Amino acid sequence: MSPPKPIYVPDANFIIRSSDNVNFRVHKSVLAMASPFFDDLLTLPQPVDSEIVDELPVVQLSEGSELLNSLISVLYPVRTVIPNSYEKVLYLLAACQKYEMASVQSSIRAEVNRGASPVPKEAEAYSAYAIASAKDLIPEMENAARLTLDVPMTFETLGEGLRLFEGRALRDLVNFRKRCRDSFITCLDSFLKIQPPGPSSIWVGCPEVIVAGAAEEIDDQQNHVLPRWLNQLLSRNWTNLLLQKFTDPLDIHSRIRREYFTALQNHASCNFCSGVHMMNGSFCTVLENKLAHACSKVPLVGPSHE
User: Fold this and answer.
1) What is the mean pLDDT of the chain?
2) Average pLDDT, integer, range 52-63
C-alpha cells in the first residue's frame, strides 16, 4: 500500500516520522495533552544534533505511516481513520498503550464497537487473541478468546497464526475452553430439571410422555418429565459436551435455536407442546441467552492462574 497522505495541520510546530519515513506535522501541545509519554519527551532538552525539517524538530517513531495516520486522526477534529483490518486495529491500540494515550485508546475502541472495523472471523480470531495477549490488550484478548469457541482448535486451523502465541497464551486459551465447556454443561443441567420454578417446568404434561408412562406402569411422580423431543435435544448436547475434545468447536450457544425449532417441528402433531410454545415463545430465547451468559461469565484466566 502507498503511504497515506498526512493530515494537514496548520501552524504545526513538531514532526513525528513513521518507520517508512512519512513526516506528520502536529502540535506539541496536542501531543502533550493526549500522552504523558510525549509530555515528558517534549520537556527534555533536545540534542544539539537533532534533525530539523522546515525549522521543526523531528522525532523518529517505530510505527508505520498507516498506524500514525490513524492515531493522529483521533487527536484532531477530522474524520477518524480506523484501519481496515482487526489485526491493524490491535497494533493501533497497542501504540496507544505504549504512548499512554488512554483517552485516544478509548475513542478507538468506541469506533470499533460501532462497527468501524471488521470482526475477526474463524481462524482470524486465534491470531487476534495471540496479538492482543502479546500486547496486553485485555478487552480485545477476552473478546477474541470467546470468538475462538465456534472454531476448532487444531493445528490446521491455527496455521501460521500459531507463531504469534507467546508465553502461556495458548495454554490459557485451552483452559478457558475447558471452563466454558463445563459452564455449558451446568447450564444444560438446569434445563434438564423440571422442578418449578425452573424454566423447563412449563413443558410437563406432554400426552406422548404420559401415555408411554401409563403403558409402562410408571407412577404419576415419575410421569413428570420433559417431552421426549426436548429431553433428547438437551441430553444429546449435554452428552456431546461431556465427551467432546477441547479441540472441538463449542458452538452450542450459536446453533441451539436452529436445533430447538427443528425438534419442535418434528413434534408438531402434539397440540400440548405447540400450545406451550405459543404461550411461552420466549423459552428458546431464554435457553439461548442462558447459554451465552454461561460463556460470558467464564473468566479468560482461571483462579489457579491469577
Assistant:
1) 89
2) 93
